[in-house]
Amino acid sequence: MQERSGLKIVMATLLAILVASGSYVITANLNKIEDNKEKPIECMGQQILAQGVCVDPEPQPPQPEDCAADQVWRDGNCQDITAPQNLTYGAEVMQWTIGEIHTLTPSFDGDGPDSWMAYPDLPSFISLNENSGEITVTPQAEHSSTTHAIIASNSGGVSTTNLTISVINVQPMFSYPSPQWTFILGYFGELPLPIIGEMSIDNWDITPELPQGLVIDSNGRIGGTATVLGSTNHSVIATNSGGSASAEIQITVVDEAPSLWYAALGNSALTLSKGIAMQPLMATSSQGPVITCNSQPQLPPGLELATNCNIEGIATVLHNQSNFLITGSNSGGTSQYNLTLTINDQPLSNILYGVGNYTFAKQVDAVDIEPSYDGGVALLWEIQPQLPTGISFNQSSGAITGTALDVNSTATYTIFANNTGGTGMASLTLTFVDITPSAISYASTDIIVESNQSYLQINISNLGDTVDTWQSYPTLPSGLNFSSDGIIFGNANTRVPRTNYTIYANNSGGSFELQINITVHDFDTDWSMITDGVTSVDYGSSRPSLILPFGQWSFPILSDWDQRPIASAAYAGQGRVVGYGHESFVAKSSGPEMTLSINAMKWACDGVGTIGLWSDFNHFEDELVAEGFTVLTSVTPDQLAGLDCYVGEFWNGWSDAQNLKIETFLTSGHGLILGGHSWYWSYSNSDVAHDYPGNKIAPTTGLFVSSHSGSVQLTLGTTAPDRLLRTIPAITALQNHFTTGPLIATSDAPTIEKTISRSTAMLTLDFNNFWTPLREMVNSTGWTQISDNSEYDLGADPIDDVLLAIEEGLYLRLPANQLSAHPSSSDFPGAVPINAPRVSLNVTVNGNYIGLPSGFGYAGARSHGMMGTGLYAAAGEVVNITVPTSIVDQNVRIQIGAHSDSLWNKDKLDRHPKVHRIWTIDSTTMQVGNTFGGLIYITFPPDSTFGMTNITIENAVQSPRYIAGVTTAQQWNNTEKNYPAPWAEIEGQFFILTVPSSEIRNLDNTAELMNWWDTALQMEHNLSGYLPWTRVERAVFDIQISAGWMHSGYPFMAHTVSVANVVNLSHISTQGDWGLFHELGHNHQWMSATLPGNTETTCNLFSAYIMTELVGVDLGAGHGAMSNSSRETRTETYFNAGSQISQWSVWTALETHMMIQEQFGWQVYTSAFSQYYNSSLTQPTNDAQEYNSWAARISNETGMNLIPFLRAWGLPIDDATFATVDHLPVWNNDPLRGWVHDYPSILQNLSVSNITSSSSTLQWDNYDNGTDVSQTICWGLFDGATTKSAWTTCSSQGLAIVGSEQKDLTGLATSSTYYWRVLGEGASGDHWSDAQSFSTN
């Protein structure tokens, strides 16, 4: 209302202005006229001008025309005009509908207006009568709400009223031509436009949503391509400004009606054979799909009509030609096809009368031949020509029976078998004679050959009459033929499983039958069957043993990058076996590994059948069932009855009786799948060939579980592994190379070497099929000679290498009485003088041997302990040894030769790869020897408690031997050192040196020498902290060793060129030998106490200890790398590069340890090492644990927190470890400070005390003052975080000092919360404490 009143005032003012303006214009114009005339006479007052004279007028009665412009005639007088008031049109807000006509009449008080206007202008569909103020409204379109001031005026004034007007549309009104509409699925369609009244529609909506694919457009038309079948009801809603209206419709989406057709038939009839699966008759529809289908009448039994009208099946009844109406339907309609169908019987085929060719003796042999055939039922049999007299033909069964009365020459008869399916024919040849062959036999009746490899000749014995022809049923394998006298010969070229063949010896008198079995192996086909669908395998972290295919019919399945077989298979007797190098490979449940597992089981089982699972493989039951197997779980070797194949483990606890059951099961025609590894078993057992469970049946299976291992990841080629990876073919090729030829191709030589060498390393001499041909070959080729003057290039010639391996396999296995002196033995280990006497002595050895804990991983900790005898076995000679029963079969051994390093990993050889030999004591009397000769030892397993053991040794040579505390100087100088054996032993309390006798012939200070060495060893033991040290260390010097210049282990190994200094007391005691102490240090390293990258580091602590504390030289003299300048340069280089832990090893890491040692002494290391030997403490098992465990232990031993120091070196020590030692003071004067590393300060115990309303005391401890770190305290009413300028107040505290610090704060606001931090600033950067807070009182 206020808004409208305001509009009235505005309009009135506007009108007044307009009137005034108009008045001004009139006056101005009059003046202009007067200016152009003579000036008139002006009369005064009421006078009028009459005849040029002003006179008073005569009074007249008033008249309407006398009224002034601002007057109105009323009641006979002119009265002043009254302004219009209270103008209204009845309402101020008006809404009209399009098409309506309205007239609005104004109402007002006062005198009538003489002027009407609107502001702003009215819309075009509204007219305002400027005389009467009447408003006429004729709306033709919508009009949004607008407000207009209607102004009525007269000379008395103005009156206004506001009109707010709008025009809305006519309420919608529409309909569709039909309430029900149908769309075809997948086809575009649309409804007609809705029928709409004369109004516009602003919006179309529909609920619920239209079927998928349909839309409603802005005109209300529904259309699109429907994608979902179904019928739905919808409300279509049309809306405009006048309201809304709705219409109900139903939309149905249907399939396109089908168009049923059988393309394979077209308009032809369908003819089927009873009992034969019909080729599926596929229905098609060029339009909509067929969803349901039926036949009138129903199709004959055995035929199935699918819902899509496909027809398939096997007709089980005969049926004369008739019609079937096939109707295919969908939601859009139906389509029909008239199928003409006939079902005949199966035509007869493969009609056979046995072999089809018979000879009978007249009046003797009764003929009784019945046909066999495939197909339907024969209704009528016929034969042409007529059979001889005495022989009948049954037209119902086709049987030929009777006895011929006369001889009849060979004749061929055609037999016709008829039924509704047609006529089948067979030919039968009959001969009636007088004589039948007999007394015929083959030399062998069970023949096995390899396809395309083995020439076969099976000889025959015929004690009967002459045979005219030879036949086999079934036909002999491809490539095999009969000779005229019945010998079977040839080269089989196609895989044939074990098959029984009936051999017919024929003549005019008849046939004689023989039975033989022939098997033709094709290993390429077998491999393809097992690996079908597998291109690569990855067995994860499981380390497999090699499965050596040494049997005649064995072959590799999986060969790794080095052609090592980790899975192999074999034919054994009538059965098949698959062997995996790890039990976890047998039954994999996913990936290509599972495919291989399933394939292998199907191959071994010769298809699917009943399979038994050892309990460890019960998890594979579901996978096998899914493949069609019948599965029995938790089956033992005692439960094999009824099984087709069995899955078990190589590493098992089966008894000999159970092994025999397994072997019988296999060879009688069943399948066997085994898995297991022997490498781990061999760590604590000996004689893999005979005692490892899986190898007890190896002679039967043809598969040997090696203690050597292969890779778990491999890619299979597209063809089977090389045939020469099979042991027997490789041996045959090698034999031929040295005898009949052909020569081995250069490309094949490495394969043959690997194949045979792997077996020579494992198979014992009782594997005759392997060793017999190799022994014969070596006897013809002779022994390989190697010496330091005649080096051998290992790898240069694979054929030479395999001969070397064969020689080694023989001389390490031959019985002592079959050994001879190797030609190379005189070069190394050396010849026994020709005139050296052989002696028989009783010796006593200490059978109490503890060994070391396995934690000393570089020391050969669990090796057998070598107890010397002072005797030497001459090369190739038999030594007789008698032992007490207490050590028989107790894993006690006789070792001949001290030089136990294998050199097969070397490129060049100065001696044979293996020159020592071990004999396991399995009898009280033993014949032993070594083709190279060597010192004689009795070796005891760790933790032996046999006590002092008496041994008798016959036919041995005495060797120089010094025993500290036993051998006197006189005995040594006069006797012992002159004994003839080429090798000697000098034994101290803690150390034994095995050296060439030539190096000690002039040694006369053995007591002093070994006392010095004992001191050195005791010092190493002491530094390690493991006391008492539970074995005597040994150092054996060799012309060539397996690794490095020296290497750790038991025994410790070094080159013979080092002996001179080692036995030279003057030299060793003043110059020392860093490297030798280093290797002995390895023997004292506890694995979990050896930090990552420190294997070659902490062993140097022992070198440094002996060099400085015993030899008495400084570190630089002990080793050039330990000079002061080298140490400084190395440290600076490491820290300049950012102290990366990946570079922290060997000499750099040694600096860390030596800095600790030089500050705190050697004892801290001894004490720290000692903690690891406590079996009750958890050993670290990964790098992170090793770092943290060491940091805590060395800190506790030094009494200082060394973690900041160790972290400076880059060691990843975690905060939890720091917390375990933060009660210790920090080593804050370590050598790195102020040199190569700047430390931050470390704060502890931040707190606030003495809090009042305006003051408090901040307190903290400087645990580590860092490197020249200045401290600043910042505080304020909010936390400025790590930006100094963001704090309200900061105050310098000067350089940090270890100990307690405080800062008094005053002038604080009452009842306020304050925040504070300590900032440390130095070369190491800015370091802020965590935010602290307190509140004033």
Structure description:
The chain is of the alpha+beta class and 1337 residues long. Helix content is 20%, strand content 34%. The protein contains 24 helices and 83 strands. The strands form 25 sheets. Strands 61, 62, 63, 64, 66, 67, 68 and 69 form an eight-stranded antiparallel sheet that branches. A seven-stranded mixed sheet has the order 51-52-53-57-56-54-55, sandwiched between helices. Strand 19 (214-216) and strand 20 form a beta hairpin. Helix 9 packs parallel to helix 11, helix 16 crosses helix 17 (1099-1111) and helix 22 packs parallel to helix 24. It is flat and about 195 Å long.
Structure described in brief:
This protein has 1337 residues and is of the alpha+beta class. The protein is flat.
Gross morphology is flat
Instruction: Give the proportion of residues in helices.
Output: 10-25%
Measured on Cα atoms, how large is the radius of gyration?
A: 58 Å
| Mean pLDDT reading | 91
Low-confidence segments: 1-37
Number of helices: 24
The end-to-end distance, rounded to whole angstroms, is 61 Å
Main beta sheet: 8 strands, antiparallel
Structural class: alpha+beta
Beta strand % = 25-35%
